[in-house]
Amino acid sequence: MAEVITKATRVSFGEALSEMADSRPDIIVLDADLAAATNTAIFRDAHPDRFFDCGIAEANMIGVAAGLAASGKTPVAASFAMFATGRAFEQIRNSVAYPNLNVKIAGSHAGISTGEDGATHQCLEDIGIMRTIPGMVVINPADHWEMKAATKAAMDYNGPVYIRLGRLAVDSFNDPETYKFEWGKGITLREGSDITVIATGLCVLESLKAVDELIAEGKSVRLINIHTIKPIDREIVIKAAKETGRIITVEEHNIIGGLADAVCEVTSSECPVPVRRIGVNDEFGYSGPAKELLDIFGLTAPNIKKVILEELEK
Amino acid sequence: MNQADKRNLEILACKARMGAIIGTFHAKSGHPGGSLSAADMFTYLYFKEMNVDPSNPSWEDRDRFVLSKGHCCPSLYAILALKGYFDWKELEVLRHVGAMLQGHPDMKGTPGIDMSSGSLGQGVSAACGMALAAKIDNKDYRVYTVLGDGECEEGEVWEAAMFAGHHNLDNLTVIVDCNGLQIDGTTEEVGGVEPLDTKFESFGFDTVIIDGHDFDAIEGAMAQAKASDKPFAIIMKTVKGKGVSFMENQVGWHGKATNAEEFEIAMAELKAQLAELEA
């Protein structure tokens, strides 16, 4: 069993960027006065000549990134998910995605686990917003090792990518010795034949806990980690639908627009099966400690386990 | 500027105006008013100012141009055609299905277009990114962008201006086409965007106000821009619809193409101007 590293994916992201800097002089990092929070500060402190703080002006930051990319650079533009994808949506759509420029957008403090800052900062729509833009890749890594690998893969990919980062420190569950990040490929973490749980981001570990308990109790539950929400791994979803006949999605996002919809878009056309959606039920969050909020909104192992059992009994 | 050079630019600008009228007529849509007000500036940029190579549009050391007021592309397209980036005949299928020339500039499909634009306020940010890239690489290319005066109502313009001032992008020249009109009326009535020179100055720019239809004035402003150690804003006063009598200073010609009868009148006027210039 690999050593457990407890670290927020935003930190893993900042570390990965900084580690790549020497071999990739084309990488330029932009932030909007949140470098300490998004952890682009790790890159800034090591490579100050390639870091530019754009101030609290996300729309311009995305446009500057587009101009840098049009001039041969590989820019990363980071802010909170809410402001990067919400405030600057149209800049991302028209100045980055339409010309297919090589800009990476990093949205930190995504989801309800942003915690005490409350609803204005708990972005529950970013995956949906980014997923609707043609050509945009959307990735949502689940732990330290996955984030490091995904960040490197995103920087090696030529085109616009949205990377979702979390604020809350989470335990790693992947083994760095064996973990392999494959662009656009889901990862089957547990095999099973009666139902499939498809999770993303920090909900993967919570789902893993729930599924392992059920497996110990003799149930046959499949668990898939989807780190690339767009383009989604159609094959793994279709196979799960066909072989297990029932799917549960788990995400720290509005149940509208995110992983649930991405999965349903595949199953509805390829192999219609019931899909139960665990997520935030089209409502705003509120202030509170992250872990309490995750419990309240049903995004931790006990509720996931309960829902799986309900579905198994149907 | 000597008279021959000036005459040559005036001829090219007149042809660019014809191109804008031809393109929008065939498209049965588009934006002639602002295309005509900015035509002289586009002409100067591509035939006098910028270091570009139409046979190698993506040459990495070229000067860059971003048309932040992307809707005024018809006359820019005409200038790019005259410069040799693509065939003039493309103007006759502007905005048609499958055409190379899109309703707003598309960098992926059109040689010579350095940045896709059209959503107001965004081009100037991209121009800042290009100017920053030149600084990072210690390259001496310059970046030019043309904005509308109405466009300056967009907050992003001022985010970009603050960025350019803060990072001292002295290789950036922002040109504001002040034709005084926007869709819903005069800029004074609608948005209250003036005064623009002192606004840009307060964001760290050097500025000059010129007549945007006077090539001597444009030449002087460009020299000032290059001599300045700050980002530079050229506030150019222009006439919307310049060169076509019934379009001049008319709000209604912001985004409307000529019908067959109007097209003949407009082209006759421009042809007469061209004949006079070529005489």
Describe, in plain words, how this protein is organized in 3D.
The complex is a heterodimer of chains A (314) and B (279). Chain A has 314 residues and is of the alpha/beta class. Helix content of chain A is 40%, strand content 20%. Chain A has helices spanning 9-20, 35-38, 41-46, 58-70, 81-87, 89-97, 126-131, 144-156, 203-216, 234-244, 259-270, 290-296, 301-312; strands at residues 6-7, 27-31, 51-53, 74-80, 104-108, 137-139, 161-164, 170-171, 187-190, 195-199, 221-225, 228-230, 247-254, 275-280. Chain A has a seven-stranded mixed β-sheet, with helices on both faces. Chain A has a five-stranded mixed β-sheet with strand order 9-11-10-13-14, with helices on both faces. In chain A, helix 9 crosses helix 13 (301-312) and helix 10 crosses helix 11 (259-270). The longest helix of chain A has 14 residues, at 203-216. The mean pLDDT of chain A is 98. The relative contact order of chain B is 0.16. In chain B, the strands form two sheets. Chain B has a five-stranded parallel β-sheet with strand order 1-2-3-7-6, with helices on both faces. Chain B has a two-stranded antiparallel sheet with strand order 4-5. The mean pLDDT of chain B is 98. Chain B is globular, with a radius of gyration of 17 Å. In chain B, strand 4 (181-182) and strand 5 form a beta hairpin. By secondary structure, chain B is an alpha/beta fold. Helices cover 44% and strands 12% of the residues of chain B. Classes of the chains: A alpha/beta (314), B alpha/beta (279). The A-B interface holds A 28, 49-50, 52, 54-55, 57, 59-73, 75, 90-91, 94-95, 98-100 and B 60, 64, 66, 106-108, 114-119, 121-134, 136, 155-156, 159-160, 162-163, 166-167.
Mean pLDDT score of chain B: 98
Beta-strand fraction estimate of chain A: 15-25%
Radius of gyration of chain A, in angstroms, nearest whole number: 19 Å
Q: How much strand of chain B?
A: 5-15%
Mean pLDDT of chain A, to the nearest integer, reads 98
| Helix fraction of chain B by DSSP (H/I, runs of at least 4) | 40-55%
H/E element string of chain A?
EHEHHEHEHHEHEHEEEEHEEHEHEHH
The general outline of chain B is globular
